[in-house]
Amino acid sequence: MHAFSPSPLQFIIITKKPYYSYSTNPKLWKIRSSATTLTAERELSVEFPAIKAAKRVVLVRHGQSTWNAEGRIQGSSNFSVLTPKGEAQAETSRQMLLDDSFDVCFTSPLSRSKRTAEIIWGTRDAPMIPDTDLREIDLYSFQGLLKHEGKEKFGPAFRQWQVDAPNFVIDDHYPVRELWARARSCWDRILEHQSKSVLVVAHNAVNQALVATAIGLGTEYFRVLLQSNCGVSVLDFIPRPEDRSPYICLNRLNQTPGSPIAGGTSAGRKASSRIILACHGTSENSGEVGDQPMNMLGVIQAQKTAELLLDLKVNTVVSSPRKASAETAKIISQVQEAADCLGADCVPRYVDVKEMEQLSVETFLGQSKQNLAMDSIIGSSLNGLEDGVINPLWDQTENAWQSLIKELSNSSEQEQVVVAVGHPILHIALMTHCLNLSEDWLGSFHLDEGSISVIDFPDGPTGKGIIRCINYTAHLGRWSIPITKSTLEDEEY
After folding, report:
1. Which of 148, 193, 249, 461 sits in a 20 to 30 Å window from 267, CA-based?
2. Distance from C-alpha of 18 to C-alpha of 288, rounded to nearest angstrom
3. Which CATH architecture has domain 273-479?
């Protein structure tokens, strides 16, 4: 129901409003010099090749493979091929990307990835470039083993692979550290290639490493930014003057062929606690800052979001008190309550709906006195904000994040799902807090109106948040944002 439709209509925008970007302005792309902060810091040693023009890179993980289906540890072995399901997933991705004029395709040479790339690439004339550094993580003696075999044969080493992968060592190698080094090497070749639109088809772990190294995250973020079979992630690279390393923005993470919330695992474990960040639908006079109600497009977007969330039993909906957010929250709760009440004598299920002033960031945006409709990925609704406004916004969203964790902890249900509804800027900040980053990362993410982002907590609300997807819009159907235009599956390696 929520899989990508093969119809190109899914990616048509029916409004003539300009493309909106909610990443932040260049002054927020600074790198802290202090190493004493408790939050993660950008890796200061990483410099990417300068670019002359904006470049978009689309990452795709291969479709389901035979060893995915068997639960085997694949690593960089080449004995696994696509299953019929994997071929179908790759075909769905091909339809999704059909109208995109990629200049080049980089691909892992391993057969499961190469075949996925061939299906997606189709009859395009542009070249496909195999790159050995795009192969999956090297797992040495682990490769080919079923999980229980790895546990029986290697004991403590297998346990370390599960709980402390960055420091995991096998056959005198540190696989995750080696993977991060390979990913950085790949970026040099991708960015130095004379192209504006690049498709990269590779694997779960290496795509995680590519995303993480692009935005400056270290090996401790392995298994935090999920990549499902044929999941699509999008990175924008924006040139900076004086031949400096480009600005980099994660436009989308793990847009999957199927629903991002139905089934699956997070980091190989079932997640019983989840926060859904739902951006409100498009509002009237969307280019202006103010307490605007949703327009007809926004109402449709909110209804589509509510339908998507029927795959979950939502316990609580928390929203900003602003009109567009409150309206979106009401639609979500009404659809949830009616879902289990199709019979004549049924009593509707109650969904707790709360408004939280901490989730309102529009006041800060209004102080910029800037139009929200910006054409550049780095021009946005935060453009023009003074440092004196950024700091209180950051503090307020930190309090908001702690309040959401408290809401999740207070739920008595076995499966705890809290939906937070607000402005895209709010959700960018909340994700940044979840990842234990500083405000310097606000410019590293992008969200669209009507999108959802999903955060799982496999170890409960007090544990680490795992980002299942960012800026998912496929549920919007023909009202979605084009995925690449600037206008057992989750875990097996």
Report:
1. 249
2. 13
3. 3-Layer(aba) Sandwich (3.40)
E strand spans, 402-441: 416-422
pLDDT at residue number 266: 58
pLDDT above 60: residue 15: no
CA distance 303 to 335: 8
Q: Which amino acid is at 283?
A: S
278 three-class SS: strand
Tens-digit pLDDT profile for residues 199-243: 999 999 999 999 999 999 999 999 999 999 999 999 999 999 888
Q: Could you tell me the fold of the domain covering 31-255?
A: Rossmann fold (3.40.50)
pLDDT (tens digit, 9 = 90+) per residue, 98-119? 878 899 999 999 999 999 999 9
> What is the strand order of the sheet 197-202 is part of?
128-130, 104-107, 197-202, 55-61, 232-240, 244-255, 466-472, 452-457, 273-279, 416-422, 316-319, 352-355
* Closest C-alpha among 149, 145, 169 to residue 157: 169
* Residues identified as active-site: 62, 136
> What span, in angstroms and rounded, lies between the C-alpha atoms of 446 and 473?
12
> Would the pTM of this model clear 0.85, i.e. be above it?
yes
The answer to whether 476 and 462 have CB atoms below 8 angstroms apart is: no
